[in-house]
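agent> step 3/5: call structure_predict on target 'Gas vesicle protein GvpL' (Guptibacillus hwajinpoensis).
agent> reason: downstream docking stage needs a structural representation; sequence fetched in step 2, passing through unchanged.
tool.input:
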Amino acid sequence: MGDLLYLYGLIPTNEATHPLPSVKGFDGEHEIFMLPNEDVTAIVCHLDHAAYSEETISDKINNDMEWLQEKAFHHHETVQQLTKQYTIVPLKFCTLYKNEESLRETVEKNKAKLSETFALLDGNEEWNLKIYCDDEQIKQQVSESNPVIKAKRDEIRALPRGRQFFEKKKMDELINQELEDEKNRFCEDIHEKLKSVSLYGSIKKTWGKDVTGRKEKMAWNSVFLLPLANVDQFLGNVEQYEGDFQETGWKFEVSGPWPPYHFSSFS
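tool.output (status=ok):
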């Protein structure tokens, strides 16, 4: 056995009576196991120090994309599987401890915070919502019906012809600004409505088309912590929005449940 520990997540010890799934660890050899520490139990695997030193892993992450993809997928799939069985505080990819003592010390220092987090996560799930839009379709709607644009056009018509030429050149810039404002208003309204059936809702950074692989632009990216009893209502609301707004250029992508990375923290 090696002297490093790879940490997947932390669970309440009273849930550790449920046996772990049979899963090979980060090295593909040693199986994951539980490391209890009073009220908190860590789910870990052993790693050989020589093969998984900080320098070796850093080099792999920066220079070996195939290794990185394989290991990141392993981490994600393992944590996702554990989420189905336990109330878990998931750890980030490649969280390593030198030995059991150092991990136990860290858990002990954060015991109160972990207790609060377990209470928050118990009976709740993390779900993600991404909202996409057809910019050209919505831009056309803004150009035709936005009151600010209408007022600007009326203002331009009242100007001398020479002034009109220069003011019309500014219209595209104004339309683009109103387009972004309209997209934000729309998404914020959806977000606030969905928060009403959630414990918490948080806004994340949007992704570019190079990441999503979609022709539509991502306008919104958010996560929600949902009571289990509210999940069906949440999904039903999103389905209704999809039906109501699809013809006007909006698309919704909901996914989950996910490990609760956004509503738990552990350093």
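agent> step 4/5: record observation. The chain has a mean pLDDT of 90.
agent> proceeding.
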